[in-house]
Amino acid sequence: MKIKVSDAFKASDAYNYKKMEIIEILQYEWAIRALIASSMVGVMCGVLGVFIVLRNMSLIGDALSHAILPGVVFGFVVAGYSLIGFFAGAVIAGLIAAVIITWIQQNVKTKNDAAIGIVFTAMFSIGVMKISQISRDDGVHLDLKDFLFGNVLGVSNEDLYLTAFVTVYVLVSVIVFYRYLFATTFQSVIAETMGISVQTVHYYLMLLLSFAVVASLKTVGVILVVAMLITPAATALLLTDKLQRVIFIAGLIGLFSAILGLILAILLETTPGPAMAVTATGFYLLAVFFAPQRGLVFKMRNKRQIRQKVELEDTLKQAFKYQERKELSLKKLSQRLSFSELKTKSYLKKLSKKGLVNLHLPTIVVTGKGIKQASKLVRAHRLWETYLVETVGLTDEQIHEDAERYEHILTDELIDEMEHHLGYPTVDPHGSPIPRKHISKNLKLNQIGQNQTAIIDEKQPSEYASAQLWQFGLLPNTEIRVISFKNNQLKLRQNTKTIELPITLAKEICVRKEVEV
Amino acid sequence: MKKLIEVKGVSVSYDRKMVLRNIYLEIEEGKLYGIIGPNGAGKSTLFKAILGLLPINVGKVSVKGDKIKKHRKEVVYVPQKSDIDWQFPATVFDVVLMGRYPHKGIFQRLNQEDKAMAMQSLQDMGIEHLKDRQIGELSGGQQQRVFLARALCQEAEIFLLDEPFVGIDVTTEEKIITMLKQLTAEGKTILVIHHDLSTVQEYFDKVIMINQRLIACGDVETTFVDENISKAFGGQLTILHKTEEL
User: Fold this and answer.
1) Is residue A446 part of a domain?
2) Does the pLDDT at position B123 exceed 50?
């Protein structure tokens, strides 16, 4: 016991020490620069990434980041160790890559992703060849590793200004041109018919992407900039389906990934770029599992709830059926349902809580409320079977299992609609009676109240009534709606016609009305 | 009658395969046109040619005597439902508001007036209560209404609708056709790609029948006759007749 406590002290000492260390470290200028630079990169890449992901251009992001290498190298060759040289070279190389890729996709019979693969590997290779050549010739320091994984701790003030400028430029562009980005991403054809040049928007986005990649070089490097572009955006897309919110959340996740990643790297004494990518992936995994509605945990819970509902309803239905046969017992019920007696009991308890069965009597009894609900299930089951045979044309043997599933899903309106469509059948294809929700009541036309509907019978009590119906243009077996009674006249509507007839005649006409049981 | 759109000898091909051959058409203002033809007859291609979305091999299309480019905001296109990404994070309101885009310059922002117009179009289509829903959550009929609301919001003169009645319920179909008739009564011109031959008589003023070539174009009463139908549908219709006999 004692040992454990002292261990814990040690651990918390170490933790406190680390905490101190971080706070101390974060007071160094280079650390502050690193923090600011990566925050900006996180936000910018997160925001821009939303459009990259939605346009299915993730691979282009990867390609562009690799393809700028020759630009950086030639920038160095031309202008020496100058930030502007690197920047200009990189952006030009990025745009050249975008143009070549698009040209191949439009003019050569090569698959889109293959075209991307060919161009970026080629450009990257040229860059690598040139680097090793220069390093050998002049012994200059142009480190390929920094290019690949970034060197956030070596961010200079100059780097910081450049990153700030690019971040502001990218964010302002997204805000100002939001509707062009939205329209061309969502429906490029429609955007074109609205007079928006889809091609121009595409290249502008490529320009922004090149900017973002160059600005991210120091922080995360070319390989991992893709993670900063795609992962926060993909995460945000799991969390909401309003585009403006997606963009905001993606920026936020990018920001947190960058800051937490940097702190994590300092704590674990490892490279910051990969730590940021891993942190972003952590957010992504959290969203995959715990996102409301779309998360796996939510889906699993939903699935379980549905299964429980189905099993509960099945228990009620079977209990009702056994009660009809006067054979209801726990044993028989659990055998029929192939549940353990324990499970059956727990479902019965749930049903009793809802007042659908009574467990306080010597035998299990399904209550009136329970019977009503159970017959609703039986009704859905048998109507669905009838529907499958009559309308879909399946045979009697094929329908039961399907109906077992659908009886739990069909809504009341759908069941009623189906019954109406099938012409109010009384038995299912197996010959079992279908519980009715409605019964038709036979009435005389004058008994139908204002604004109520009824159906005119085909068989009328007298020749006179039939002849009069024909005279007034009223159709049998067709619904009417009573509009008003005035001056001994009854006004009604059938289909699109309004018809007036004397109330004395209405007394002679037989109609039927579907009423709920 | 004013000729609104003129298609003069247009031919279009994809991958060296001719889809449209030498089509001549004159579309009159204020009429509701049905475009009829079998699958692969080039109905959607005709729309794209009119909209200037694809290169035309031979021939010319003009809108009000000019190139389409000059009249972009007056022409609205409602694509087939299958051409739309229903998973996209866009709300009903976002989509309808797109109708205002062609009315704005590059740096102009959308204002309250634009939003009010979008709301009005939603109300006209009876879907204002769905304005914050993601488009994929709607029923087929509601989805079609969203895109019609966008067309209204654009205040266009010419409507091109590609199979607007696919996958929607009868009530919505009736509502939409009533609305289209009302729009033509207000002087708008509407072209509808349509596949249900049984409703052609009832729905349209004029009919354009194509099967790669133009078969016939004119008033429904005089043009939508057996002779032209069998010319347009060729072998396919005999199969149709046979299935009816069965």
Assistant:
1) yes
2) yes
